[in-house]
Amino acid sequence: MKFLEYTPLDRINDFLDHLNLGERTIKGCLEAYSCKHTGTDKRLSISLEHEILDYLGKSLDTDSSSPAEFLLSRSSRKALIYLVLTLYHMYPDYDFSAVKAHQFFTEESWNTFKQIFETYMFEASKEWSETYGGSSLLETLYKALDEVVKLPECEIYSYNPDSDSDPFLEKGAIWSFNFFFYNRKLKRVVSFRFSCLSNLVAEGFLVNGSTYEEDGEIFDDMDM
């Protein structure tokens, strides 16, 4: 996997680096990768393939309706391996399991992504319009993604791991989303993670006991 640099993505990344909205901060990051194996990727992809095949052998013996049926297709296994390799490049210190990751990936439509983005990134979109005018943040994102991976030809996946398997999780996270846009023909993947963090937690207001103690002292002086 090779990291690809694209100016249209950089513009959005600069805007979403740390968008302070008072009590909350919006963060977002787009990363593009070419699905060309390096030496390390080749060894890792073989290991992931063996892990998946071993899992398939066990699950299909015990449950004919297993969701692992999705992985019977070689092209589906290949797509999963590329997605997991992307995760490895994003978080090189984290050990991802292909089988476990498979349980957290869900194929989505552009309309589903659009609905989530417009709902949760409403304030960020408003800030974008006030800063740049012209095309909306979503329109700019669409054009940038289309330039890199040709969106009409893409498969879109969301990645929603549990808290124990989430390398994206940050302190004070109110919500977070992780999407992957994969073009089989171009052999490219773009990851897009965006989240909302509480500035109160980051600054210690919600985790520092002294804040609550001070509030308690105020009530101690009042007749209840």
TrEMBL record:
<dbReference type="GO" id="GO:0033194">
    <property type="term" value="P:response to hydroperoxide"/>
</dbReference>
<comment type="similarity">
    <text>Belongs to the MAF1 family.</text>
</comment>
<dbReference type="GO" id="GO:0005829">
    <property type="term" value="C:cytosol"/>
</dbReference>
<dbReference type="GO" id="GO:0016480">
    <property type="term" value="P:negative regulation of transcription by RNA polymerase III"/>
</dbReference>
<dbReference type="InterPro" id="IPR015257">
    <property type="entry name" value="Maf1"/>
</dbReference>
<dbReference type="GO" id="GO:0005634">
    <property type="term" value="C:nucleus"/>
</dbReference>
<keyword id="KW-0539">Nucleus</keyword>
<dbReference type="GO" id="GO:0072718">
    <property type="term" value="P:response to cisplatin"/>
</dbReference>
<protein>
    <recommendedName>
        <fullName>Repressor of RNA polymerase III transcription</fullName>
    </recommendedName>
</protein>
<keyword id="KW-0678">Repressor</keyword>
<dbReference type="GO" id="GO:0072702">
    <property type="term" value="P:response to methyl methanesulfonate"/>
</dbReference>
<keyword id="KW-0804">Transcription</keyword>
<dbReference type="GO" id="GO:0000994">
    <property type="term" value="F:RNA polymerase III core binding"/>
</dbReference>
<keyword id="KW-0805">Transcription regulation</keyword>
<dbReference type="InterPro" id="IPR038564">
    <property type="entry name" value="Maf1_sf"/>
</dbReference>
<dbReference type="Pfam" id="PF09174">
    <property type="entry name" value="Maf1"/>
</dbReference>
